[in-house]
């Protein structure tokens, strides 16, 4: 039999260790190797062939191709069953003046009658997503502004969602959240995503009101009130080199306020990056790997960060928590597949990265239904089997081809790669979870 090294092996040294790891996202195996064995495998003269064959690290190319194709069909089938996240933007207006806002350059809207648009949005959801599991995420701008018109819009969205038994998530800056709690309690709230970028002084520098006034105490009070009311909170911190050193202080604060002890509380770290509008000071921005390198060093010095947030480090955390590899990732971009975005002007977009961006509209749901079928199909067909660069990349089933919008911004077209530094992330993550822990 003509066994060869699998095209899906990912081998690299574990950070701060003499040992190496090998993972194979197709055969779903992962092992730690000594340097000698890793070297022999990389040189193409592997020892213990039987074990390597059993784990799929050595395989017959035609057999492996069959496994790849049948896995792909399973992936497509299971995606058809996945829940769809439908974003609705009732406004692009915001009361914050965040230093890094990517929507800053978007035009502000003209006042319009929101009622027929919201009704048309729900009718579109009824007809176009019939039979799919789904929920709606209300996004902005800032969707929970304190004025009466915005409150009336949110009330109507809740009413229409409740009629249909749909749950709602809200992506909010949190400033007026406390005053919205009684209204939100009438909805089925899946999650409130609220951003806090650090302890008070750091958050206030980065996320002030337009007047320059700080916002930390109101936002933190909103988190307290939401948890108190039994509403799940997903706290997000948008990271760059300026606030990374302050993450331990934010973690301590979250522990002290009792947030991390709540089952309703979870966190995510976003990366501040140039999405559509150039940022003034782009040398404070991280690339994907350097952010997680700095986070690794920070966690080693301040373990409290892990009480606040356990980073995924590609599939390292999954492997640690579940004791097995995840399913192969043939696609990591949900746009136009399990994610869509709609805005108050009646337009349809692929996802949150493109919503409201001039030139990215894929159609309209109001005043009439239109869809640019070819443009939507370009999103739907993009995965690691369609992107030429991904077809022979050993990382493909751990990377999934990345974000289509980021790929288009960088390469000018959707069907192009947005590479994830999978090996580097795994090197850090396996060290953190399996060696340091
Ligand atoms: S384009 Fe990027 S932001 Fe939009 S759904 Fe895909 S991965 Fe997400
Ligand atoms: S996006 Fe880049 S790293 Fe990811 S699978 Fe494609 S070529 Fe490989």
TrEMBL record:
Cofactor dependency: [4Fe-4S] cluster
Keywords tagged on the record: Iron, Iron-sulfur, Metal-binding, S-adenosyl-L-methionine
Coiled-coil ranges from the UniProt annotation: none
All copies of domain Radical SAM core, residue ranges: 80-319
UniProt GO MF annotations: iron-sulfur cluster binding; metal ion binding; oxidoreductase activity
Claim: Lipid biosynthesis is one of the keywords in the record: no
Signal sequence range: none
Record PROSITE patterns: RADICAL_SAM
Family to which the UniProt record says this protein belongs: Belongs to the radical SAM superfamily. Anaerobic sulfatase-maturating enzyme family.
Protein name in the entry: Radical SAM protein
């Amino acid at each position: 039999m003509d066994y060869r090294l699998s095209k899906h092996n990912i081998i690299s040294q574990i950070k701060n260790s003499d040992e190496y790891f090998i993972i194979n996202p197709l055969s779903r195996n992962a092992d730690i190797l000594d340097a000698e064995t890793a070297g022999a495998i990389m040189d193409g003269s592997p020892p213990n062939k039987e074990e390597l064959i059993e784990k799929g690290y050595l395989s017959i190319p035609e057999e492996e191709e069959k496994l790849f194709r049948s896995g792909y069909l399973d992936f497509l089938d299971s995606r058809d069953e996945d829940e769809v996240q439908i974003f609705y933007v009732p406004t692009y207006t915001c009361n914050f003046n965040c230093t890094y806002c990517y929507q800053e350059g978007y035009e502000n809207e003209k006042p319009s009658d929101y009622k027929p648009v919201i009704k048309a949005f729900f009718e579109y959801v009824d007809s176009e997503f019939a039979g799919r599991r789904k929920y709606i995420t209300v996004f902005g701008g800032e969707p929970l502004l304190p004025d009466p018109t915005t409150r009336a819009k949110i009330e109507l969205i809740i009413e229409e969602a409740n009629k249909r038994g749909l749950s709602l998530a809200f992506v909010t800056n949190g400033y007026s959240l406390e005053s919205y709690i009684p209204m939100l309690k009438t909805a089925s709230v899946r999650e409130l995503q609220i951003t806090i970028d650090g302890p008070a002084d750091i958050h206030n520098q980065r996320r002030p009101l337009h007047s320059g006034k700080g916002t930390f105490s109101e936002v933190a009070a909103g988190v307290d009130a939401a948890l108190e009311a039994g509403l799940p909170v997903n706290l997000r911190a948008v990271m760059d080199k300026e606030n990374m050193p302050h993450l331990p202080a934010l973690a301590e604060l979250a522990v002290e306020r009792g947030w991390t002890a709540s089952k309703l509380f979870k966190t995510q770290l976003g990366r501040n990056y140039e999405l559509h509008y150039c940022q003034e000071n782009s040398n404070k921005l991280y690339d994907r790997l350097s952010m997680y390198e700095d986070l690794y060093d920070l966690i080693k010095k301040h373990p409290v960060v892990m009480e606040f947030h356990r980073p995924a480090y590609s599939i390292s955390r999954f492997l640690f928590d579940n004791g097995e590899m995840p399913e192969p990732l043939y696609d990591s971009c949900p746009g136009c597949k399990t994610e869509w975005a709609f805005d108050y002007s009646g337009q349809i977009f692929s996802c949150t990265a493109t919503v409201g961006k001039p030139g990215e509209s894929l159609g309209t749901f109001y005043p009439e239904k239109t869809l640019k079928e070819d443009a939507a199909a370009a999103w739907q067909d993009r995965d690691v089997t369609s992107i030429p660069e991904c077809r022979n990349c050993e990382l493909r089933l751990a990377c999934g081809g990345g974000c289509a919008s980021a790929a288009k911004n960088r390469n000018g077209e959707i069907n192009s790669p947005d590479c994830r530094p999978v090996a580097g992330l795994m090197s850090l993550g396996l060290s953190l979870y399996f060696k340091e822990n």
